[in-house]
Amino acid sequence: MGGEVGSFLLVWVSAVALLCYCHKIGQLTHGGTTRLLAILPVVCIFLVMPLGILSLSVRGLTSFFLCWLATFKLLLFVFDQGPLSSNPPLSLPRFVAFACFPIKIQQDPAPTVSPHDQELVHVDDNQDVEKLVNAEDRDTPSQKIAPKGLKSHLNYALKFLLLVIFGCIYTKEDYFHPKFILFLYVIHIYIALELILAMFGALARACLGVELEPQFEEPYLASSLQDFWGKRWNLMVTKILHPTVYSPIRSTFSRWIAKKWASLPAVMGTFLVSGLMHELIFLHIGRQKPKWEVTCFFLLHGFCLAIEIGIKREIKGTWGLPRVVAAPLVVGFVVVTAMWLFMPTVVRCKIDAEARMETIAFINFVKGVYIYLKDVFINHNDHKF
C-alpha cells in the first residue's frame, strides 16, 4: 500500500510541477514555434508518466487524464487555442485543473446543437440537415440535468445501486452465462466511469467555484450514433477531439472535395485517433502489446457514423426511425460491438477482474460496517434494559 501511494504522489506531484512550468511558459511566450519547443518535452513526459503508478485502476485514470486530456489541451495551448487559452489568462490553479481533469466551464445558454454535431452535419450549405438535427433534438429532449451541470443525486444513487447489484451477481458468477457477465462488465464500465468523472467534476466545482458541463448525457437514450458519440458519450473527449483532430482534417480535405463531404474523412480520422489513444491507455494499464481490437472498434463506429451522416444528407429529414425503435438499436449495436471488439482487451488487461474485486470488497466492507453497527445497537439496548 505504501508503494502504491508513493508512486501515485510522485507521478502527480511531478505532473502538477510540469503544468506550473507550462503556465509560466504561456506567460513568457506567444503561441507558435517557441511555445511548441518549450512544451513538447512535457507532452512527451506525460505519455510515459502513468507507467510509474503501481495500482492498475489508478494507472488507467492517470493515463486518461495526462496522456489524453492534458496532452491534447497543451497542444491546443501551444497555438493559443482550447480551454487553457483565455483572455485574461487563467490563474495557476484553474490552469492545472482544466489541463488534466475532464472539466469544462458551462456556457449559458447552452446551444440546441453542440458545435461538434454542427460540424459533423456541415450546416453551412445544407440547411435541410440542420433542420433534421434540430428536429431530432426537439423530439428527443435530453435527460434533465440538475443545476450547475450535474445530474440529480437520485440519478447517481440509482447507478451506484446498480454497481452494488452487479457486485452481488459477481459473487455468484458461476451460475450465469459468461456472455451475460461480459454484458454486465460493459454496463459496469460505463457507470463506473460516469460516477468517477462526476466526482472529479463535483470536486473541481467546489474548489474552483465555476459551473461545469456534465461529462455524460444518458447515452442509453441516444437515437443515433451521431447522437451517442456527439452529444451523450464522454463529452469532454468529444470537445477536445473536435478542435485537435476533426477540424484540421475537415479543413484539409475541404481543399480537394466538397465541404459537405469533407466531414466524412474527418469523422474517420477522429475515431482513428480515439482508438489509438484508447490503445495507449490499455498499454499503460496492462503493459502488453496492443492487438488493435480497440482501434477496430472505433474505426467500425467511425465508418458506420460516416454512413449515417451521408444518409441523413441524402434523405434530408424525409424519413427516420421513431426514438422508441432507434434507441434500442443504437444501444444494442454499441453493446454488441463493445463485447466483440472492446471487451477482449479489457479482459486481457484484467480490468474486469479488478473492477469485480473492488466491487465485492466494497460490498463486504458495507456488510461489515452494518454487522458492527447492529451489534453495537443490540448491546446498547441490552445494557439499557
Automatic annotation (TrEMBL):
Main localization of the protein described in the UniProt heading: membrane
Species in which this protein is naturally found: Populus alba x Populus x berolinensis
Protein name: Acyl-CoA--sterol O-acyltransferase 1-like
Domain of life: Eukaryota
MF term (GO), any: O-acyltransferase activity
Lineage: Eukaryota, Viridiplantae, Streptophyta, Embryophyta, Tracheophyta
Transmembrane segments: 32-54, 61-79, 153-170, 182-204, 261-282, 323-342
Protein localization: Membrane
This protein's UniProt keywords: Acyltransferase, Lipid metabolism, Membrane, Transferase, Transmembrane, Transmembrane helix
GO CC aspect terms: membrane
Family under the similarity heading: Belongs to the wax synthase family.
Gene Ontology biological-process entries: lipid metabolic process
Pfam family, one: MBOAT_2
Membrane topology, as annotated: Multi-pass membrane protein
Stored PANTHER family: LONG-CHAIN-ALCOHOL O-FATTY-ACYLTRANSFERASE 3-RELATED, MBOAT (MEMBRANE BOUND O-ACYL TRANSFERASE) FAMILY PROTEIN
